Amino acid sequence: MSLSQPSPAKRARTDEDSEFSSPTRSDVWHSDGSVVLQASNMQFRVHWGVLTMHSSVFKDLYSVPQPDLPGPMVDGCPVVELHDDPEQLAHFLRALYNPALFSQKTLSFDVLAALICLGRKYDCQELRKASAERLISEFPTTASAYEAFREQDLVSPLSLTSSSTTLYDAIQLLKEQHLLSALPVAYFLLSYDPLNLESLLTEEEVAVRPDERPILPQETLLPRVLDAWRTEGYNPSILPEMGKLGLLGPTINGYGCAGVSNVAYGLIQREIERVDSGYRSTASVQSSLVMHPINEFGTDAQKEKYLPRLATGEIVGAFGLTEPNHGSDPAAMETTAEEVDGGFILNGSKTWISNAPVADVFVVWAKCKWDGKIRGFLLEKEMKGLTAPQIKNKIALRASITGSIFMDSVRVSQDALLPKGQGLGAPFSCLNSARFGISWGVMGALEDCIERTREYALERKQFGRPLASFQLIQKKLAEAHTEAALGLLASLQVGRLKDAGKLSPNMVSMVKKNNCGKALQHSRTLLDVFGGNACADEYHVGRHAANLQVTNTYEGTNDIHALILGRAITGVQAFAN
Question: Among the options 205, 273, 323, 555, which is catalytic?
Answer without folding.
Answer: 555
